[in-house]
Amino acid sequence: MSDPSTRDNILDAAQRIAAERGAGRITLDEVARESGLSKGGLLYHFATKEALLQAMLERLIARTSAVRETHEQTYAGHPNATLRAMLATRMNPEVLDPSVAMAILTAVAEQPALLDPLRQHIQQMRERILAESGDSPA
After folding, report:
1. Domain ranges (residues) in the chain
2. Which of 31, 94, 131, 135 has the highest local Cβ count within 10 Å?
């Protein structure tokens, strides 16, 4: 099991590279350099670039979900609580800089299968919103 703080340090480094230099600059060598690890140290935590990109996307989803869940508690009992929470989350600058999210999505777009967790998350949110609104799917 990898050390969570080292893992977060690596993901933070990859996120900085994506935001500052573009998604195309996310390479294992660049991430190792940015995180202050040897390439072997990086490979211990993430054996492939795909594993690193997947972890970046999973962390993005987890962080966004945590903020949304806080907003859901605020809007509990209100009409369209999930939709309200999603909008409040999206408008919250503390969630994640949109340029970082876009860079991560651009990076994982090279491997379409890596987007499956995001697709599933979006589908679940869509279903919840439709159920709360009483609208039938189009």
Report:
1. 4-133
2. 31
pLDDT tens across 110-136, in order? 788 888 888 898 899 999 999 988 776
Which own/partner contact pairs does 105-108 have at CB distance under 8 Å and 24+ positions apart?
105/57, 106/18, 106/22, 106/23, 107/18, 107/23, 107/24, 107/26, 107/53, 107/56, 108/53, 108/54, 108/56, 108/57
Instruction: Name the DSSP class of 136.
Output: P
Please state which CATH number belongs to domain 4-133: 1.10.357.10
Helix (H), strand (E) counts: the chain = 7, 0
pLDDT in tens, 8-22: 999 999 988 988 888
